[in-house]
Amino acid sequence: MISAIVNNLVKINNIRIIIFLYMFAGIISLTKMTGGIKGFVHLVRDIVKTKQAAMFLTWLSTMGTFSDPDFRIVTVAPIMKALRQRLKLSSQQIGFVIEATSNPVVVLVPVATAFVGYMVSLTGTALQHVGITAVPYQVYIRSIPFNFFAFTILAVGLYYSFFKDFGSAKQSEDKNPNLEQGEEELVQCYRAYEKDTPLKPWNLIIPLIIILVSTLFLSWWDGHKLASGFLGAFLKVDALGVMLEAVFITLILSLIYFLIQGFSVAKLVTHFVKGGNELVSVIIMLALIWALSAVSEDLGFSKYIAFHIAGWIPHALIAPALFLLGGFISYFIGSSWGTWGILMPLGITIAHQAGANILLSIGAVFASGTFGAFASPLSDNSVTLCTILDLDVIEYARFKLKPALIAAGITTILFAIASFIH
């Protein structure tokens, strides 16, 4: 157990995720302490007067936070949590909408994300194994319309945003005493800062602008020497490394900006550490999840499932079967990347040998990983979101499982229909 935890903690991408989460949480804490979030809430108060307006703001924010699901969650969730008190929003509704517009949106964006590089790499390796010489990026682009689960859960998210009645926030708190305690602490926090912190929305807006602009610029800069075109540069980028560099730049420039305003170094350091420490429980959970996934792989879980199922799949139902198999695996390992890595070689090989539509099979694999990243209680997105919104992970996972299964059922039907059409 110790070996599995340590070996996965020291992997470069996992360490980058841990540092990124800690530092970004620290920056959010600084913006809260300096009046950024409080000022932003007051700034949008005249605009966001209803639950519908708050939901629209959540959807609109995807345009600036599409680069990574965790980045979107740690950026948007604290703002919506603050608005929640005044608009009497349900934390479960806020969480569902944020998560429905996180991973499902990121997997559909063909540029400037870590997901693109990973998905294209997996696709290219699997195609090469079966002797297909197509350009991996072009194949990936053509498979995007077949990620039916991403589109379906976005439609479900729209319904839950504007048409589903979740009741009052008080009813949700009655079901979850921890949530009530967390929200009381949030209110006390704002009251404590009210006298010595003015309303300064730019203390939130400027750091967010810095991190978005620096992420996009560094993404191009990191990849432009390895690619011929502008868009090609975003495919060659080391996205996690770039995001970590961007958050360091944002922290340094934000500290200078806050110091110019007269905030003390001691106060800034204290609240940065305090904010980062709030995600220590998430970091511990991630370490355990990574270890669990590694152990399941060492035990041959995915190979066992694939070996016993692949032989009896009808050729016309390869895509829906891949989606159901991948959905089962991704739910229990909580990782879209892990599911794609496990299933993509198998999916393309089976489709190629059976003469089935390879694009449809690729879409089914990507859709299955998207399902697990959204629905699984082991997903790092879910754990991070629940920590920020003070939600019980298991209760929240149970809540979103029903709509996730409805979307999965619709997705399976769509894959079955598409299999016969194509």
- Percent of residues in beta strands? under 5%
Number of domains: 1
Output the number of helix runs.
Answer: 23
Largest sheet: none
Which overall shape is indicated by the principal axes computed on the Cα atoms? globular
- Radius of gyration, Cα only, in angstroms? 22 Å
The arrangement of helices and strands along the chain is HHHHHHHHHHHHHHHHHHHHHHH
Instruction: Give the overall average pLDDT.
Output: 78
- The computed structural class is mainly alpha
How far apart the termini lie comes to: 46 Å
Uncertain segments:
168-195
Strands, count:
0
Question: Which bin fits the share of residues in helices?
Answer: over 70%
Describe the model.
The protein is mainly α and 422 residues long. The protein has one domain (2-421). The chain is built from 23 helices and no strands. The longest helix is centred in the C-terminal third of the chain and has 29 residues, at 393-421.
